[in-house]
Amino acid sequence: MLSYQHVYHAGNFADAHKHWVLSLLLQALCKKSTPWRYLETHAGRGDYDLTSEEAQKTSEWTAGILPLMQAKGTCPPEFDAYLAAVRGLNPDAGKLTRYPGSPAIAAGFLRETDQLALCELHPKEYAELKRQFGRNRQIHVHQRDGFEGVMAMSPPPEKRGLVMIDPSYELKDDYQRIPAYVSKLTKKWSNAVIAIWYPVLAEKRHEQMLELMRQLPLHKTLRSELILTPVARGMYGSGMLVINPPWRLDKQLQAGWAHLSEALRGDPKASCSADWLIAE
Question: Which of 265, 263, 246, 259 is closest to 24 using CA atoms?
């Protein structure tokens, strides 16, 4: 239950998709002067060492963030904030050695009035998260079950904010648990922007989760998926659901899809899509 460590997968194609969408959501929050709070159920580490033994063992980042950083041609402005977060950890433009996790990306958007609340249960991951952010008074790190923690902290005093739900899905019942969880969370905090990442696996377990989500009385819910060549076993795609998405998020994703697909041209069958799981 506590075996997953994201360092083995940091910066892979799913991270490139997930963290790009996350950066667009955080940008939208900052368009208004009123404060916001970011809450995350499964924070992992703040950032990841791509030269570590764990990251080098899989080198998944070489088929994700690396080709996106090296992509030729004009990069759409929709990627500016996300790629700036990566460059901020890598001052040597020709060498990629670190990758920002979602806590580091969110921290980069903090203004004086904003707050982060990060939940992480894994002892090693929590210790690293605490080391990186423990002295920042705007960032609150909790070693607790993220589903329970975020629910207990909702709604926050700021009333505006973003919830990131990003479990490892090691537990198969997460696909059923998340729709039930979202149903309760939206009753407590109806105007929260809720982002949910999910893997697209050969077993297609995500389809049941999406069908359960469709049955909920939710506001507009945007779905975006990055799909690679299907495989007989394992993950071949990345999905993001965004409940209460900011205005024009769908247009921003559509504007960037071609660039993301081109960067991942190593897989000629890579495809991207954005549609409404639940329309208004």
Answer: 246
CA separation for the pair 167, 260 (Å, rounded): 24
Q: Please tell me whether residue 64 adopts helix, strand or coil conformation.
A: coil
- Are residues 107 and 139 in contact, defined by beta-carbon separation less than 8 angstroms? yes
- Known catalytic membership, residue 80: no
Residues 89-138 pLDDT 10s: 998 877 899 999 999 999 999 999 999 999 999 999 999 999 999 899 99
- SS3 label, residue 182: helix
On the CB side of 69, how many CA atoms lie within 13 Å of its CA?
Answer: 24
DSSP reduced 3-state for 153: coil
Whether the bond into 246 is cis, omega within 30 of 0:
no
Q: Which residues sit opposite 195 in a β-bridge?
A: 164, 242
Render pLDDT for 129-184 as a digit per residue (tens, 0 to 9). Answer: 999 998 999 999 999 999 999 999 999 999 999 999 999 898 889 999 999 999 99
Catalytic residue among 114, 166, 173, 267: 166
DSSP notation for 6-56: GGGTTTSHHHHHHHHHHHHHHHHHTTSSS--EEEESS---SEEETTSHHHH
Strands 193-201 and 98-100 come out as unpaired
